[in-house]
Amino acid sequence: MASADHGAAAMPGAVPATRRKPLLPGGLLPFLLLLALAIALPLTGNEYWALIATRAAIYWVLVAGLNLIVGFAGQLAIGYVALLTLGAYTTSVLAAGNVLPEMPPFLALACAAAVGAVAGLVVGLPALRLRTFYFAMTTLGFATIVTQVALAWQEVTGGGIGISGPYFPAPFDNAWGFYYLCLGFAVIATLLAGNVGRSRFGRALIAIRDAEVAAEAAGISKPALLACVFLFAGAMAAVAGGLFAGLQTYITPEAFTFELSLLFFIAVLIGGRGSVLGPLLGTVLLTLLPEIAAPLAAWSTLLYAVMLLAIVLAVPGGIAALIDMGRRRRLPADRAILPRPAALGALLGQRPAAPPLRLRGIALHFGGLRAIDGLDLVLRPGEVHGLIGPNGSGKTTTLNVISGYYQPQQGSLALGEAPLAMGRPESRAGQGIARTFQTPRIIGEATVLQNVMIGGTVAGHATFAEAMLWLPRQAADEARLEADARLALQAVGLEALAGFRADRLQHSELRFVEIARALMLRPAYLLLDEPAAGLSAEEIRRLGQLIREISAHGTGVLLVEHHADLIFDICGHVTVLNLGRVLAEGRPAEVRAHKEVISAYLGA
Amino acid sequence: MLASILATGLAMGAVYALIGITYNTMFATSRVMSFTAGQLGMLGGVFGSLLMLRWGLPLVVALPLTLLAAALVGVVTEFVAVRPVLRSLEQHLYVLTTLAVALIIQQTTAIEWGTEPAPFPRLLGLGEGVWHEKYWLPVVACAITIGGLEYLYRRTLLGHAFIAVAEDNYAARALGLPERNLRIGSYALAGAIGALAGFAGGQLLLAFFANGPLLNFYGFIPVALGGLGNNRGAVIGGLALGLFQQAANFTVGGIFSSVAVFTLFIIVLLAAPQGLFGATASRRV
Amino acid sequence: MPISEPEAILSVQDLHAGYGRIRVLHGVELVVRTGEVVALLGPNGAGKTTLLSAISGLLPHEAGSIRFGGRDMAGAGPRETAAAGLVHVIEGHRVFTQVTVLDNLLLAGYGLPRAERNQYVEEALEFFPEIAAKRHERGGALSGGQQQMLAVAQGLVRRPKLLMLDEPSAGLSPVLVDRVLSVVAALRQRGVSVLLVEQLIEKALAVSDRVYALVQGKVALAAPTGTEGLARKLEAAYFGMEPAK
């Protein structure tokens, strides 16, 4: 739907100063400066510098892809040298004609990219099932294996003796020519990775890293997304490998040390997670460091290790945080959360009323503990439905069943006539069911605006490839998501904080950010899990008003709350749970006067 | 050939099992899988060679000194890499900090000790052929360690305190147990166990700075197979791994045996991510 | 001037605490006197568990003071508070399932000299003949009720001056609830103070001298249990308003 235009109409004079949109994360200027420096490098006339700079460019081609895995998605792939090795050998073997007829070097490089993409996927897929340390170990193991295979498969790889690298024809057959070739690849890598990073895919990756549960609720499919990234990073790494082989002119398995793998990995972390510029600077820095500082290879690895420790313990944000000027910008003093119903109208607009959401005979037990014991519940569009009850009565469990996190042993769940799949949280966003969490699941390192935009991830039309190339559909997606997110922030009253990192906000503000994120789905049903916890009395009053307004626009709200006064104040219908069953239900006044409810609450 | 497979397989398997126990010992009190486990094994070999060959100390002095020095390394790891990030376990920062410390250990060794494998002395001078001490010493060390740990965990209050902290850290703290000191203690213990693995297996592995990553990986497999924190599982997994690896070595050749081990490892991990005797995942929402 | 009365064993003043950014307690004031049983009531999420954790040092507090037995407990962790005789039995009968009942109790006396430890453990077991009979079984083999008794017994091993019990009745059958709460009465007779967090209000009131109601991180009501119309006042405190009719 066209929401970008009414976005502008709904906020006259309220356009924040931070509206200017950077072309690349962190702004374009530093990238252009670096590029200018790189282009001007031959003016030194020093071919030694050409070698170092070529190496840095090649490493960056790999790190640009790896950065999406490690820095964005938070998957600790420490053995990425394996893909460099694979790319180097594939290119060299194909160019030499050991297996197939001899290929021109660029065709061999393209083939290596394809092989690398597949290998990247295969090596990466365990990340979907394994915990961090396990995944790190499998990539480490893979790195060992690839080297050993290269040693063993003598007829193809030349074993320990090695094989000549591909010969790139003129004008790339001299030091500076080859340097410009690698620089070109580095620029392309920067553009592609940068585009992914600033697209909804990049945000989704960070969401998987820092707020996986919230990512699922926003409809982000982790397997599909990670698969795309693994393909991309694998291809980039293999291209880097092919170029690396070209630079070495002759490769042996010893050239691909585990130290190289660490350089890639640490470059990302030193650069800063979720940034493109930071890891680029990190790569350049780590490539230069041994040349300037350390005569011995052992010293340079020791230096990397010390830097890694220092970064993790002292500067978790890495270089990116150090150069991020906006980080210290002051938050507006004496700010308040002032929801604006008008923006809500612009965002939610007129929608056909959704059918009721029905739970029938839901029963769920964890081991021997019965959490829900035969529950029937109906949510209706445009109604605020309160769900209360003592501790352990099954309120949040019910909410988790509806939003697909728990799979009940019995019962059914349907939106109108259509049954909803149980235990599939990532499917709910597509059906217009949004939720918030008891503890706000927010990406602290992303801005408030980016956090809210994550809520609209499923609304994007552009594919991963389109995002990578920033084609028109991607640009349209991005503009619409941003306009919607600003509207949602206005609706909850936080538009003044759009450009600030979310981890600088107060707890109560994060609760409203979560509601804004949920509103991005234009939800038919909104499930709120204790939204008033930790809020001041005045904030609770505003929250109540906001919830009422949301329901007035046709959204059905399920409100799980401990604050009985809020429930009785704003709900149209209240269900009281006790021990996983419905104890009472009806209009607030009826429920409030119900004797059993009082005694259940007071525990008599 | 069979005898040779058995001797080498059990010896290497015992070393892997001990490294697995090193992982487990650190994990129990801190929920941290530390990359330093393999480096501790490497240090066992290097310290042993340093003390006995370079400095000429007798075994009865060199072994305690080696274990003590490695225990100290363990304690330093706790202070530098574990304690500062315990609060942010969500972000798995410990993977990075322990990796950094492991590398620092490895590279410091490379600089101070050298990058060539150095010989490791015969310890007792007993046995020849497949009964050479280098084959059975690791097995004996593994048996002694398991026996000692069983005694500690079953019979002593200190051992019970370790179990308590491992099972429910919060309840242990509420009860007034010195959780922090227990954690430091477990890192010291892990340091000694890891070094014992490298010391007992020194004649097979030599004193070589680059042994760490290899031991890290092959010592982790028994843990992954047996389930985190399960020492008996680690011993069974370690010995099985050692035998499988040596059998593959002799039948299909050394290089492809690593490929076989790796493939098997991935398959088992994907099929049973919690290990073959593992625990269930916790609630997320 | 000392606000705490001489017989106050625990006095909490203007206590603020929370988890990270989430503030849970907003200036709690509370006093427990020697030999007194105080019930701490309140709806879900009011901050009762947080309050106990802050008092026992499991959770560092941000502002305010906690004095126990005349000592300022600022910066004291659970080890120090337990050693001082302020013992917190956390909710959910979290005993150690892999070691025996006896070892569970010995662990509660960790750091005490062996002879004393054994003696105190036996004393604690005297309160609970049910679990004394199972002293060599693993904690995990006990029923929920027995685990709760074991948890309370663990709390007694330190010979507390003040015992804080967090929802000892949760998940227990009514008979077992009475059994566990009978120990509270027995402790009171021996001059031990008890701070009791309970969902079962009537049962809690039956064994208590005074009651505090904690609502949204503040004390909404403090009264002796004999107060006229206490139930109505509690209801009003819980729901934040009078009934609609």
Automatic annotation (TrEMBL), chain B:
GO biological process: amino acid transport
Keywords from the named record: Amino-acid transport, Cell membrane, Membrane, Transmembrane, Transmembrane helix, Transport
Sequence similarity: Belongs to the binding-protein-dependent transport system permease family. LivHM subfamily.
TM spans (from-to): 6-25, 32-53, 59-81, 93-115, 135-153, 187-211, 217-243, 250-272
Keyword Thylakoid: no
Name of protein: Branched-chain amino acid ABC transporter permease
Membrane topology: Multi-pass membrane protein
Main location group: membrane
GO molecular function: transmembrane transporter activity
Cellular component terms per the entry's GO annotation: plasma membrane
Compartment annotation: Cell membrane
UniProtKB/TrEMBL annotation, chain C:
Alphabetical list of InterPro entries matching this protein: AAA+_ATPase, ABC_transporter-like_ATP-bd, ABC_transporter-like_CS, BCAA_Transport_ATP-bd_LivF, P-loop_NTPase
Residues in ABC transporter domain copies: 10-241
Molecular function, one GO term: branched-chain amino acid transmembrane transporter activity
BP terms from Gene Ontology: L-amino acid transport
Keywords, in A-Z order: Amino-acid transport, ATP-binding, Nucleotide-binding, Transport
Keyword flag ATP-binding: yes
Family in the record: Belongs to the ABC transporter superfamily.
PANTHER family: HIGH-AFFINITY BRANCHED-CHAIN AMINO ACID TRANSPORT ATP-BINDING PROTEIN LIVF
Name of the protein this chain belongs to: ABC transporter ATP-binding protein
Lineage, opening ranks: Bacteria, Pseudomonadati, Pseudomonadota, Alphaproteobacteria, Acetobacterales
